[in-house]
Specification:
Layout (H helix, E strand, L loop, with lengths): L2 H9 L4 H22 L2 H18 L9 H19 L7 H10 L9 H19 L3 H11 L5 H8 L1
Helix pairs in contact: 1-2, 2-3, 2-4, 3-4
């Protein structure tokens, strides 16, 4: 089923929207959560929480043409929040590694200055990605959106 039809199911409050979403994107969503949490049970819980969150956010949002990105953003935030909640426990090493790689680039405050810096950072990243080849952009997204390891990226792109 295409994304627009799945979103229509959400908009009409048809519960089959969740099963259709799970069938189409469940494994990809679990993979994102697992890359962050390194725990299958927590990844599955994040996946289920993503469906609930999508149910609550559609409407008002209508992500007919970007459903996977919409869901991906939700599951990433849920998994990262779970990781933060478990701060007293050993966190996933990749999350730390990526945090260290990006810590000097991402603003830390949520004030006007921090918001402006985040907007500038977004523009800089967009400009950088515009200068990259398709493979280079894909590597960047695989690393910083999907949290793929360097080994996984090397296997995928040779």
């Amino acid at each position: 089923m295409d994304d627009a039809r799945i979103v229509e199911l959400y908009l009409s409050r048809n519960e089959s929207a969740i099963s259709q979403t799970a069938e189409k994107y469940g494994s990809k969503l679990r993979r994102i959560a697992y890359s962050i949490l390194n725990n299958q049970e927590s990844a599955e819980e994040s996946e289920n929480d993503t469906y609930l969150e999508a149910w609550n956010r559609i409407p008002p949002h209508e992500p007919r043409t970007y459903l996977f990105a919409f869901l991906g953003r939700i599951i990433r935030h849920l998994a990262i929040d779970e990781c933060r909640r478990n701060a007293s426990q050993k966190r996933h090493a990749l999350f730390y590694e990526l945090t260290q790689e990006m810590q000097e680039c991402i603003p830390g405050k949520s004030d006007v200055e921090g918001t402006f810096a985040a907007d500038v950072l977004s523009q800089v990243i967009d400009a950088f990605l515009d200068t990259c080849s398709e493979d280079q952009r894909n590597v960047f997204v695989r690393r910083y959106w999907f949290f793929d390891t360097i080994t996984e990226i090397c296997k995928r792109y040779g």
